[in-house]
Design goal:
single chain, alpha/beta, 8 strands, binds erythose-4-phosphate
Length: 218
């Protein structure tokens, strides 16, 4: 399973990269706004900086909602760096744009996916990644992880190559649940990723090992 970090915060991206387990980054307009990145030129520069920090794919989302606008914007984003993946919403225009980009050999991430039907269209259009938003589904009392499982099963059944990228991850347990149902990728906040390390028995065990060492070695 690949690990992406879901942020535009450079310090957190560096920290995850330093851990040695990072496979990529996802951003969206809200995450860019959270970091105060505004203006097209600054946004482009920020994407380039992220690409210089990490080795893997970096999702950059289009703002345009019409086909021509998405193509123009997506091609500009992809030209910024070979690691850029063009992130496109799962609308009628978006599906057309994903098909266009995939025919041209650009990597795409089909975003704002909340149903198996949307995931089916994303795969048919040749998306590299499909991003079901599990936390936002949980927020409306719908099982987000269950959707991941259904999409993974459906893609396996038909042999689609689109990778299931579980997004809108809110906590560590979401990552574990996504691993259990076979998500290809999880994109998560740093705290959810580092949360995987936490276990009280590890802390207690380490404390005892160090204390025993100290008894004999001072
Ligand atoms: C990432 O690709 C998504 O845009 C992101 O995970 C959405 O997360 P949120 O539901 O916490 O905003």
């Amino acid at each position: 399973m690949k690990f992406f970090i879901d942020t535009a915060n450079l310090n957190q991206i560096k920290e995850a990269q330093d851990l040695g387990i990072l496979d990529g980054v996802t951003t969206n307009p809200s995450l860019m706004a959270k970091e105060g990145i505004k203006g097209d030129e600054n946004i482009k520069k920020h994407y380039q900086t992220i690409c210089e920090i990490v080795d893997g794919d970096v999702s950059a989302e289009v703002i345009a909602t019409d086909f021509d606008g998405m193509i123009k914007e997506g091609e500009t984003l992809a030209a910024l760096h070979p690691q850029i993946t063009i992130k496109v919403p799962v609308t009628k225009e978006g599906i057309k744009a994903i098909k266009y980009f995939s025919d041209k050999g650009f990597k795409t991430n089909c975003t704002l996916v909340f149903s198996i039907g949307q995931a089916l269209l994303a795969a048919k259009a040749g998306a590299t990644y499909v991003s079901p938003f599990i936390g936002r589904l949980d927020d409306i009392s719908t099982d987000g992880v269950e959707l991941i499982k259904h999409i993974v099963d459906m893609y396996n059944y038909y042999g689609f190559e689109t990778q299931v990228l579980a997004a809108s991850i809110r906590h560590t347990q979401h990552i574990i649940q996504c691993a259990e149902v076979g998500a290809d990728v999880v994109t998560a906040p740093l705290s959810a990723i580092t949360g995987l390390l936490n276990h009280p028995l590890t802390d207690l065990g380490l404390e005892k090992f160090l204390a025993d060492y100290k008894k004999l070695n001072g």
